[in-house]
Amino acid sequence: MDYFIYLGICIVATASPGPAIFLSIKNGAKYGFSKALIGVVGNVVAMLTLASVSAVGLGAVILASPLLYTAIKVIGGLYLIYLGVKAWCSKPLSHTEHTEKLVITAPSRLKIFSESYLVGISNPKAIAFYTALFPQFINLDQPVFSQFALLAGTFAVCSFLFLATYVVLASKLRKYLERKKTLVWFNRITGGVFVGFGAALVSSNHA
């Protein structure tokens, strides 16, 4: 019963809109499914990293230090703002000067992975989530590592499935982004969303 409660929490948490989801949508729409899926893997690896940090107790240490927590929060928020400004200011390139059809050049797989990993790892709210959640579902009378592996693995699978679903749906929009005006507005909308998330993270109170 406890596991299914945890599963329900994971589903709600991973399906709810956030920076990782909007980054997956942006990548899927602009670069297609296969490239965007690399970003999904990057975000999932970041989530597993944060889960491991919380499991060994470092999450509690970070939460106990307002200065360290604030530093991570500000760095993460500024990175999201940077991604937003970068998306807003990006200029689409046409095949020629006489056509509105665009060539969208995808960054390398390593860059897509790294960008998604940094978006995931720089969110201190995830550390707070894991640190508060894991102890509620771990029985100290049973082997802890196997329980941790199950909890972290469940969250990772849920995250992967939902992000991949958003990527599939967004990749269907790629053909519409071949028009210059559409891509300009898409960049502005996604850029604005990232700036909003970043500003909210920077300005949020310690919790």
From TrEMBL:
The answer, when asked if Cell membrane is one of the entry's keywords, is yes
Q: Where are the transmembrane segments?
A: 6-25, 37-61, 67-85, 117-138, 144-170, 182-202
Which InterPro entries does this one have? LeuE-type (IPR001123)
Q: Which family does it belong to?
A: Belongs to the Rht family.
| GO molecular function annotations of the record | homoserine transmembrane transporter activity
List localization entries: Cell membrane
UniProt topology in membrane: Multi-pass membrane protein
Protein source organism: Vibrio gazogenes DSM 21264 = NBRC 103151
Cite a GO CC annotation: plasma membrane
Q: Which domain of life is it from?
A: Bacteria
Q: What is this protein called?
A: Threonine/homoserine/homoserine lactone efflux protein
Top-level taxonomy: Bacteria, Pseudomonadati, Pseudomonadota, Gammaproteobacteria, Vibrionales
Report the Pfam families cross-referenced here. Answer: LysE
Keywords tagged on the record: Cell membrane, Membrane, Transmembrane, Transmembrane helix
